[in-house]
Structure formats: C-alpha cells, structure tokens
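Supplementary material to the annual report.
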Amino acid sequence: MIEGLAGFVAWLGASVVVLSDGRRGLALGAALSTLALAAIVFSGAGPVAGIALGVGGLTAAARRLTVGVAGWGIMPPGSTPRFILCVGGGLLALWIALGVTSGHSSALRFAVITVAGLAGARVLSSGESSVLLTSVALLALATAAASGLTEEALAIWPYVGAAAIAAGVGWLPQSAPRAA
Amino acid sequence: MLPEAAELLVLAAAALLFALVFAPAAASRRNLLVQGGTGMVATAAIAVVPTFDLALLTIVGLGVMQAGIPGKRTLAVRLRAPVLAVAVLAFALVFLRVEGPAVLERFAAVGLVAGLAAAVGLFPYIHPFAADEPVAASPIVWIAFVGPVLAAVVLSRAEGLLSVDAGQALAAMLIGLGVINMAWGSIASWLTDDTAAAWRYSFLADWGLVLCGFGLTLSDGRRAALLVLFGIVVGRLPLYLVSREPRAERVTSEGPINLVVAAALAGSAPFVGFAARVLLLRGATQLFWPLALVLALGMLLWLPGSLRLGRSLGRPRGRQAFGVALAVAVNVAAGLYPLPLLAAAKL
Amino acid sequence: MPSAAVLAPVALPLVAAGVIAVFRLAGMSLGRVAAAIGAWGAVAALLAVWIPVRSSLELTLGALGYGSSFDLRIDAVTFAFGLMIATPTAVLLTLQPRTWQEMSISLVGLASALAAIEGGSVVLTALAGATAGTVAIVLLETEDPRAPRPSWATLLVGWLALSWVGVMLQVGGGTAVYSAVPVATVTAPLFGVLAVAALLASNLFPWRTWPADLWSRPSLRAAGITVAILYPLGFYLLVRAYELGDGRYPHPLFHAGLAILGVTAAFAAAARAQAAATRRKFLGEVIPFFGGFALASIAIGTALGLVAGLVLLATAAAMVACLALLPDRAGLAAMVSIAAAVGLPPGLAFGARVIGIEATFEAGDLLGLIGVAAAAAWALLMVGGARAIGLPGGRGHPATETFAGVSMAIAMLTLLAGPAIAAVQTGFANPVATEVMSTSALGGGLITVDTVSSVLPAVTLFAPLLILGVLVYAVAGTSAIRTQSRAALFKLPEGGIWQRARETVRALTVPEQYRSILNIRELEIAAVGGQPLLWLAALAALAFAVTR
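Predicted assembly:
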C-alpha cells in the first residue's frame, strides 16, 4: 500500500516537473519524486541507500528553489500536450509495470519508468536551464533506483553517485552560448 | 576492467597528450588540460565502475559537465543527446532486469543500440554541431574520445546480459545502423559545405565500420572494430585537431602530405584502416558474403571525402607538421603490424 | 642461403629512402647515388638470391594480426616480376635528377611493389600492392598536381577486391598462401573477382587509361616510375592465379574471355597509336599494346603462351625505361625506339609476339582466331610506327631528364636480344611456367624454342636477320627512311565520349516539383538539427523493427 502510494507520488512529482516552468514548481516536483523514490529504495535496498538518494534529491530541490524562473509556473498556457504526456506516460508506465512485467516491487518498476521517462521527455522538450538541470537530477535518481531491480546484492555506490550528481547539477555554471 | 576498454583508454590519453602538445596556438593549454583531464577521469570511470548503473551515472555527470563548458550551442542542445542516451539505456536495463515476455529483451537491445548511438552522436542521433565551437565543448568529444570506451563497455556488457535471440537482434541493428552511418557519413563528408562538419561526418563514417564490426559477433569483427577505433582516436582525432588552424591561416592545398593524410583517412594501405577493412571483410564473408560486398562498396565512398579533408590540412608547419607525421607514422605501424594492439586487448 | 635474404630486395630500397630523407633533413644531399644504390641493390639482391639456387626461398615469421602471417618468398615468379619492376626503376632513378622527396617516395613505391610480389599470400599482396598504388599517386601529385594521373578510386577498388579474394580464400580454404590454397576453393565467382582486381590494378582495358595517359605528362620522371612499379602487378596476379588453380583458371571461358580482352586492348591501343598526332602520343600507346598482347598470351592457358607473355612483359619493362628517357625530338634514338616498340625482326618483341600467336593456334578450338586478331593488331601498330617516324615530336621534356643515348641503347638491346629469345625463355620465363603450371619445362634449350607442333630456331633464324639489318644500316644509313608526315590509316571517332557522358549526367537535375523531397541540404539540416521528435521516431522505428 505504501509502496503503491510512493509510486503514485513519484509519478506526481515527475508530472509537476514536466508541467512547471517556475522554480517553486520544479522544486516541489523534484522533492515529491525524491521522497517517493527514497521511500521505495529504503524498503528495497536499505536505509543508507534511501537516505543517500533522499539527501541528494532534496538538495537539488532546495537549490532549485533559489535559482530559476520566479514563481510556480505550473500548467502555463500551451502546456496541454505536456499534460497529456504526463497522463499518457503514467498509464503506459502503469501498464508496463503491472501488466507486462513482473518480479518484486512493481512500485519500483513503475516509479523508475515514469520518472526516467518523464524526466527524459522534459529535457527533450525544454530549453530553460533550470528545467533541464532539475530533470537531469531526477533522471540520475531514477537510474540509481533502477539498480534495485536486479537480483544481485545491492551496492551503495549507485545511490551515492546519483545523489552526488543530483546535488551537484544545480551548481552548474550556466554560461550563455557565444555569438559567432 | 575490460582489456579493450583499457587499451582504448590509453589511446585516449595519448590523444589528449597530442592535443596538449600539438594544439593550434589559439587553444588554451591550461583549459585543455583541465577539461581534457576531467574527461579522461570520467571516461576511465565508465570503464572501471563495477556496474552498468554507475556507468550510466558517469555519462550523466560527464554530459552535464561538458554542457557547462562555454560553447556556441545552448545548454539544452548539448544536454539532449547524453540525457536521451542515459534514459534509453536505463530503460534497456530495466527491461533486462524485470521478468516479462521475451520481446522485452529485444526492446532492451533496441535501448542499448539507440542509447549508444545517442551518446556517441551517430545517425539518427547526430548531435548538432557548431563549426567554431571549442573542441572540448563540441560533439567531437563524444564521438572520438569518450565514445570508443563507451562502446566497448556497453557492448561487452550487453553480451553478458542478452539472450541469444536478443543478441541476434542487437547484432542486426548494429549492422544496419553501421551501414547507414557508413553511407551517410562518407557521402556527407564529401558533399557538406563546411569543412569542420565534413570532419565530423568522417568520424561518423568510421563509426559505421565500428558498429558493423561489433555487429558481426565474430572475433574478426571485434578486431576490426578495435582497429577502426584506434584509427579514430590516434589518427583521425589528432589530424582533426591539427586542421583547426585559426581562420586567417587556413588554406587548402594538395601537396604530398595532404595526399598521405587523405590516404590514411580513406583507409588505404598501409594504414590501419586497411587492416581493419580486411578483417571486416573476413568477418562478413564468414557470416554472409553479400554483406561483404555491401561493405566493400561502401568502403569506396571514403575516398572523395578523405581527399577533401586531406586538403583542408593546408600546409602544416613546424610543430604541427611533426604532429601530422607522428599520427601518420603510428597509423602505418599499426596498419602493417596490428597484432600487438589486438593481443593487448586479448583479441 | 639464409631465409632472411628474401627481405633484401624490399629492405634495401626502404633503407635507402630513409637515409636520403634523414640526410636531407640534416642538410646534406646525397644526390642520385643513394637512390641508385637502393634500387640496384634490390636488383642485385634478387639475382643473388635466385641465381645460385634457382629454387624457392621463403621466410615465414609470425602472424601479423589480420589473418595472414608475415610470409615472403622468392621463387621464379617473384624473380621474373621483380626484375621487371626493379630494373627499369633503377635505371630511371640512376639517371634522372629528382628532388629528394621524389627519390624517397619512388624508393618506397619500389619497395612496396617488390613486397607485393614477394608476398606469400594474397592478402599480403593486396596490402603491399595497395601501398604501391597509394605511393604512386603521391609521387605523381608531388611532381605535378595538374598533370594526368591514375584514378585513385580504380586503384583502390582493385586492391580492395584482391583483399576480398584473399579473405574468401582464408574463409573457404583455410589459407590464402599461394602454394597452399586448395584448388577447390578457387571457384569461378572467386576467380572473377580476382580477374577484376588484376585488370583494375594494371588498368588493362580497351579504352585509354593511365598506362597511356601518363606519357603525356610534362615530365616523365614520375610517370616512368609509376608505370614500372604498378603496371606489371596486374599480370602478376593473373600468373599467380595459375598457381592457385593448379595450372589453369577455373573455367575455359576465363581463358578465352581474358585473352579476347587482351587482344581487344592491344587492337584499341594500336588503333589509337596509328591515329596519334604526335610521336609522343604514339609512344604512349606502346606499353598498353604490349600489355594487351601479353594479357592475351598469358590468359590462353598454355605454357607457351605464358612464356611468350612473360617475355613480352620483360620487353615492355625495358621499353618503360627507354620511353621515359627518350627526348621528343626527331633522331636516331626515336627511330630505334619505335622499331623496338613495334616489334621489328629480329627483336625480342618480334620473337615473343610470334610465339604468342603460335600459342593461340596450338591452344586449339577457336582460340586461334585470337591469334589472327593479335596479328592484325600488330600489323596496325607497325603501320602506326612507320607513320610515327614522320610525326612532330610532342611538347618536349626537360633536357636534364632525357638521355637519348641510353634510350637508344635500351631499344637496341631489345632488338639485339632477339636471337637470344630461347635463352631468355629458358632462363627467365620457363621456370615461371614450371612453377605455376606444374608442367615440365618447355623444350628447346638456349638455341630454339620448341612448341607443340613446331620448333622456332631462334638463333639460326634471327641472328642472320640481325646481321642483315646491321649491314643494311651500315650501307644505307638512315637516308632511305622518309620522314614526311602521313595520314592515319583511319581516324578514331571524336574523343570525349566519356567526357560528354559525364557532362550529361552532371547536367541532370531533379524536376522542380520533386526538389523539396530530394533536397540534400534540407535533409542534412533535419538530420543534424537534434529534433527530439526525429529521435523518438527513430527509436520507435527500431522497436517496431525488432518485433518483426
């Protein structure tokens, strides 16, 4: 039940990132997804992994709160295609996680697919650096979470690495492209 | 660490050293050292890390760091390809790890191929290119520096993860994309307006051979792929760096050195490209001889573009002339006697 | 003789090239001495290795990494072709002044060509031959980038095709070593590719190609070297093909087809020669004529034909040096060279052509018609030669490159050597036939050439002819030779058919209504635009493809 809720929250957070242009919205989405992923990883890979992931993601969210376009910017005009993407993507991920695939932790499968997919789609569709870097942070977290799908004994390093990347991207110097 | 990846890492380090010593005067060596060194560390990390997930995370980190280097292209443009690559590769990993219908493994194979192509910048995931962008910020880093190690790591891991059926699908896709990249890269290198873009397409063409080599799934194919990657890192990349003279001094000429360079770029004997082509034809003949015919015909397309690129070197002087001679000499040595290279990679 | 001796013909020119370059970079010029030493050293090494033992000497070191071992061999075939390549090259490098770059590159080309014929396997031959082709292109461009040169593409295609033959032999028969390939591996399709490779390597075609075009360059320094090192290589492959096929080609049609191609090429060369506007243009067709005739003889499939072809090639090699040193002005040197080229009796060319035609008659069936055609082509060349004496010389070449005396001496040597054709056949060509066709040596010894149906008493027939010719010259001198310009026997169609065809193709345009679909620039922009939709579509296409 909790895992199911976590999966839903992961999707919700990723969707908020897709639908937001402002830093508050992005920070909220990042935080929601982080908490959800951390919760799922906590129960699967152990507390250290979950905490590492959580710290990294929340650091990214906190940084996002201070850098970027001011305001929430959730569902600005012209965001209907993104809304459809979120709903459609979520349904597709749900079908894959529950109907097509099997194994332990369907919530993890759903969360990874939905967060990675929506974060990747957001990077492809936006040109705003704060949006891009938030999406990259989420993608890193989802990638690390995916290591929990393997049957082998889980190492801590993917989670730590993802946390470092997520925490660090927000500090990337954003230089403007040089004119010819 | 995979022996192939280790060897390619050493070659990449040599290429970086070449860039530091022979780079045109306009380039800042200090920046090159910092950026190149960081890239080396990240590339080494891709080869060394114990799990594929960590390799993907390294790619993300590398992509983000490279996007932060001042350049002509926007952040969005520079991030798209590495992010798509990681997303697609992550999906591939998910499909490999979960239980489900057999077709999921084939989708995983798609993810691996597409992810590799997107990371390196091959057709149809060609990275946007700005001719005057510093090399460290340009897609050349992916296609000529990080890409070879990445390809070795991804495809060797894929071997262990995929079933026979999915492996065949992977091989078929590699060969298909390889042939397309060969054709696209060589023709575009010949016909495109901009010379720097022509150089970039020539890398694409060589990667076509690499993909075909990996797709042949025979030892000769892997050997061929390694030799072509050697040619990319230690031949084509250094020559490209030398060709990037400041605009005022850039002239085209067709002296003997330009023709020798053209021959090296075209994969003519006695350069390493010819040995690679022989191995590729051998592998293709063993597998399916009409494929060898297609490859042989495709190999002819290198000539016109290579002549153009050879001319674009102008008349190298002083240190750059020495650099060109060194790159050519190393290529000749490897072309005549590639066994040590192959033995070092345990091929 | 230690096996390592086989390295000498390849190593000596390479070392000489290196020494020249190093000394020049250090500020010292070694002139032509080092180049001469390197080239003549290769000749001497071939003689020193072969003559004492007259059997194969082989050096096999370890694997190289692409399915072949480092395997060099000097046998009768290597010896014959090695002399054909190295001797004219040595003469030219000794006499003609060159820049140090040209000398070094020429020596590297010589070494590559010798490595190609010493290579014990098809793959090694392909590697070395392709290197020789590349080096030749570089040499020609170094001398004069604007002058005609071979198409790099056709050279590359030929050697790439040969490398494919090599790998097919490795895959099908386990080896590409000439002496070890199972006969069953040499199938008709494989031989077809090999034949195409050979034809492309030497450009043995009826139309005018680089063996003729190069002679119209302003300077003949690089042209002479290029023809000397590259032209024999295609023939080498066809001779080695006999060894691969245990003495024959896989199908009689190959014998007939290649022989017909050869005689057609010879006839076309003769037709162009008789319509030439200048003497230089006439002389430019001499080597293609020799080559076509030699191809017809070699391809016939008999030992006699092979021997005749080899003697023709040897004569052609001498003529390469002769033509490269010949000045364009009129004079005795030009006349003697033309006489040697057209095959006046009792010269070596005359004897070899007679034997070649004899071989076609003895081959049986309708192959004798090839001999008739060859005779007709020969007659046409003779008419052209008679006309060429009165033609204007040509554009002229730098005087420092031409040596009329030496040129005349070489031509004279081929004429005087006619009576010794039996000895040449016995010592030079017969061992090749024995090696590749596994037949016993042709009979006859040093005085006669024994064919299947008759005997050619070379010494007793040619020697009196020679004496007669000398006497006639002593009495009449050149006063009886009329040098006025004569009309061509027939004019060729206006040249430039290929040029017009190329221009027609270039002028083709896509109809206006389809340009938006086939706009390459737009396609390129779309492909490199980094369009996410395109990327996702490609992903979807791949996913769809794997479900099929």
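Chain A has one domain: 2-169.
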